[in-house]
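Running this now, will post back.
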Amino acid sequence: MVEIILFLGTATADEDNPHGYSAGEKHAVLLFLRQDKGSAPNWSNAEDELEKKGWSDIVLSEASPIAPETLNSVHSDALGSYEDAVKDGFAALVFASCLTRRC
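Update: finished.
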C-alpha cells in the first residue's frame, strides 16, 4: 500500500528548469512523493527528485501524508499533481510568485 507525502519548501531555479523561470529565482514549492504507507517522509528522495527537474538550493520545511480530498483548499492544481505522483512517483507544484528581488 502507498500514500502521497506532501512536502512544503522553497527552491531556486536552475537554467534547465522546465517552467522557464530565470536561473537564480527562488520559488515556493509543493512536492508530492509516493511512498510506502506509514513510512517516514523521505526528505532526501524528495530533494533529489526536484533537483532532477532543474532546481537547487532546496529547503524543505514540512512534510505530511495528504488526502486527495483536502487538496482543493491548497491550490487549484494540487489534485493534478497528487494524481501525477500516484502514477509517476513524484510531482512538483511550483508557485509562480518569485521570492527573490531578482525576478
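Residues 41 and 63 are 6 Å apart (CA to CA). More later if anyone needs it.
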